[in-house]
Amino acid sequence: MTFLASAPAKVILFGEHFVVENEPAIAAALDLRVEVSVNLLDEKRFEIRSGNLFSFVRLDDLLSNHYSVNQHLKPLYVILRKVIEKYGFEGGLKFIIKSPIPMGVGLGSSAAVFVAFSAGLLKAVAGEYDLEKVVKLASEGEILAHGRPSGIDPTISANGGVIVYRKSEGFIPLKAAVPLHLVIGVSGEVRSTATMVEKVLSLKKRFPEIFEPLYHAAGHLAIEAAKAIERGDLTSIGMLMNINHGLLSSLGVSTMNLERLVHAARDAGALGAKITGAGGGGAIISICPQNLLETVASAIKRSGGFPLISKVSDRGVSVIER
Ligand code: PMV
């Protein structure tokens, strides 16, 4: 028997970094999905294959925590152990992970993998999964991979659609009154979310009186943006994205390449453009009228970025049985 789990990539539309300090933020799921297939094995061992990474651990070694695997696969084995300890399992499992989501660029590739993996695993071992359990498990993976994440990435990937998220309160779904068409521009710069988050937090700690009002402004901005999304006011959404980009630049997370992409998108007719995710490289997003998607994508390409045209998707995690 095979279970096929899938979960979407995400963008943060508003409020990244500020969300780490409990300001509200808005995230959206994309129509770009990770797939994890889960097969039952007779042998008591757990295999994980992801791109060119492969490892396996015997059940006994997993339970006694005596194993060593590639560090990128380690959080998956931690999730696996938690689930097996809780529900018990006498067989083995083989996981194959396929992801079209560019890695480490702020599109939530790791959270989507953890979410799809957790849902497929729960379905195979416990017979069912619920979104709360999936987000909890995936968040543990995110902590191992990224240090101090806010939890927004696994929440949006599990639920899909558009959400307003606040660390202390969880999330509420938003109903966008019109489709949101995005052009993403991936910059070639590699960075780590954990490093960027620590860098921002230490700057804030050094200049608290300057940063507190910026954080409050970002919180108000996210609330204004939520209202604009619900009334389908694309012009205001674009303007608020531009302001949000300015706030992110003041946190020190922009780079010359990201600025180039943001300005290329705006000059080509995007209604607004900003960094998405941790910055320091990674990607930008722009919100565009549907007839200008290709024009904006070409402008991003000419400015050295890799463009991705994507729509917001209502689909969160799902598991089907084959
Ligand atoms: O992993 P990224 O690049 O999508 O960044 C996540 C967003 C941050 O707000 C910077 C961190 C977090 O955990 O919310």
Describe this structure in words.
The structure is a single chain. The chain is α+β, with helices and mostly antiparallel strands and 322 residues long. It has 2 domains: 2-174, Ribosomal Protein S5, domain 2 (2-Layer Sandwich); 181-311, Alpha-Beta Plaits. The chain is 43% helix and 26% strand. The chain has 10 helices and 12 strands. Strands 1, 2, 3, 4, 5, 6, 7 and 12 form an 8-stranded mixed beta sheet that branches. Strands 9-10-8-11 form a 4-stranded antiparallel beta sheet. Strand 9 (272-276) and strand 10 (283-287) form a beta hairpin. Helix 7 runs antiparallel to helix 8 (234-250). The radius of gyration is 20 Å and the shape is globular. It starts with a strand and ends with a strand. The model has no long low-confidence stretch (mean pLDDT 96). The structure holds (3R)-3-hydroxy-3-methyl-5-(phosphonooxy)pentanoic acid (PMV). (3R)-3-hydroxy-3-methyl-5-(phosphonooxy)pentanoic acid binds at residues 12, 16-17, 19-20, 106, 108, 149-150, 152-153, 193, 197, 277-278, 282. The site of (3R)-3-hydroxy-3-methyl-5-(phosphonooxy)pentanoic acid has 16 residues, from helix 5 and helix 6.
